[in-house]
Amino acid sequence: MWGWMVEYWHYTSDTSYNEVVSQAILAQASPTDDFMMSEEAGQLGNDDQVFWGLTAMTAAERSFPIPSTASVTYIDLAKGVFNDMAGPHWNTSTCNGGLQWQFNPNNAGFYYKSSVANGGFFQLAARLARNHYVYDGTDDTGNCTGIDHDQWSYNAGTMLLGTAILANISSSNSTSIWATRAPGLLTSAQHVFFSPYPNATNVLFESMCEEASTCNNDQFSFKAYLSRWMTAATQMLPSLQTQVLDLIAPSTQAAALSCSGMNASICGTKWYVGGWDGTKGLGQQMAALDTIQGLLVNGTAPPLIVPGS
């Protein structure tokens, strides 16, 4: 039902039910951010859980408004469901793997490999794969089996410009894997690092720490690298220009408003507040300057290919 209501908002722009819908989704999120509510453990099955995951995925894909008080994002909820199904719920003891209808052995249907559970998982995995999210890393002491799902803007920026350059090198083949992955990375960055609130559409923010005011000195500068490498990517892959400009232009305006501290000489962190937020530092100055000067990219020459390199 709630997935349908998200689509209703998307198709009609009617916001009448948005608060109820977001509350309903988040109320089921569970402490583990995977819709595994303890009070429903006796009746929750893989098919039930995956429908909640698909709802969260739809909300993420549609940029459905999320309350400022939310402690988790829609995409993180979808990933929580995926991690359960790819991990503890996946049963390799029979039939070469797959999801049973029920994951609780006390429930009828525990021994039944259900098409809707597996099909839902397949769809969720495909929709997540379509979004090229860049996670922070992994630990080689565990043979890289665990993933740190933190997402920082500069990580996305490194991958975006790299793939755009490889797309440029392979420009004779417009359908190369790099020409496909670069816009995928840009779109995923847009989902994660832009539009923190409905009244701050396409404004850049550091989603891991900015709203909670927990960024450290390094993290204040991360937006600088993403915006710098986004604009650089447009010179390598011009098809990215429109989408990048749609993000950089509002971010530039918001960043400029934030640079109103101390007689308009200091820039702040939270560009979406409509002015200076009282913070200052090298990272804030870098982020604002890199973003604002990015609007000049179309009047400059692309990077040189250095002889002998």
Summarize the entry for a quick read.
With 309 residues, the chain is mainly alpha-helical. It has helices at 2-12, 18-27, 46-61, 74-86, 115-130, 153-169, 177-193, 217-220, 222-236, 241-258, 261-264, 282-293, and strands at residues 137-138, 147-148. It is 50% helix and 1% strand.
Based on the model shown, name its key terms.
309 residues; mainly alpha; two-stranded antiparallel sheet; 12 helices
Any overview of this molecule?
This protein is mostly helical and 309 residues long. Helix content is 50%, strand content 1%. The protein has a two-stranded antiparallel ribbon. A hairpin with an 8-residue loop joins β1 and β2. α1 packs parallel to α3, α9 runs antiparallel to α10 and α10 crosses α12. It is globular and about 65 Å long. The termini are far apart. The model has no long low-confidence stretch (mean pLDDT 92).
Q: What distance separates the N and C termini?
A: 57 Å
Annotation field: number of helices: 12
Shape, principal axes of CA atoms: globular
The strand order across the widest sheet is 1-2
Mean pLDDT level: 92
Order of helix and strand elements from N to C terminus: HHHHHEEHHHHHHH
Note the main sheet: 2 strands, antiparallel
Helix share, percent: 40-55%
Q: Which strand-content bin applies to the residues?
A: under 5%
Q: Return residue spans where pLDDT drops below 50 for at least 5 consecutive residues.
A: none
Structural category is mainly alpha
- Gyration radius, in Å: 22 Å
Tally the beta strands: 2
